[in-house]
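Structure ticket #2291
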Amino acid sequence: MQWDILAQAIVNGILIGGVYSLTSVGLNLIFGVVKIVNFAHGEFLMLGMYITYWSWALLGIDPLISLAITMPLMFLFGLFVQRFLFQPILKAPELAQIFMTVALQILLQNLALAVFSANYRSVPTAYGDLTYTLGPVVISAPRLYAFIISLVLSGALSFLLLSTDLGKAMRAAAQDRDVAELMGINQNYIFLVAVGLAAALAGAAGTVVMPFFYAYPNAGIAFGLKSFVVAIAGGLGSIRGALVMGLILGAAESLGIQYVGADAGMLVAFIILLVVLVLRPQGLFAGGRL
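Resolution: structure written out below.
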């Protein structure tokens, strides 16, 4: 019986860990290419949740189908953020960049509170209570779908970075901006696309969790904190690190909740972060940049 409980906890954790990975991949993309630590990244996810909710409330669109709405809208939002907020501070001191993203975080939270109120909003789906059984493990269909979509989108980003001219240009800009510019790479264009893609991925993460999570103005805080834990522990700028650490964090968090208590998830996350920083300050996959 104990082994059944352990297996169930690990599977549950890995499924939500896929969403953590997807969120962290976008965070790492911004840092790796634009060199800005985006403290508002969790709020990008929150905006994706609200887009998904209103797509369902006004148009009756299923959350998973509304990815076709959320990702383009969040991509455009990312372009706006890069062009008018990030680009003017690219050469500013790091402290000014941090304050900018923190201010954006607070602004988005309060705008959501003013426009949408503090009410919790959910999206009921036909498959909300659907489960699959694999031996002793019961797998929630919405969480499984979120996991699969998260891995597909993360894999699509990896393919773009490794196998396309645009991705190679991003990697070149991430490795050495001056050399990339001498090679004719338009850095402003690359930065726009990088932040747009990161925002789209965060929005997608917000969409896939809506069948089993609530949208509210502060919903992005917990996801944002965990995405930072994943990004830092995996190695800032490392896409592979974000993918692996997201799954590890999800499993560890689930085990903590199962065997320690319902409030132990965040505690476990930061214990992992502290241990990694003590043993390997640069992160587990610091060598595996974009």
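Closing remark: The first strand starts at residue 131 and ends at 134.
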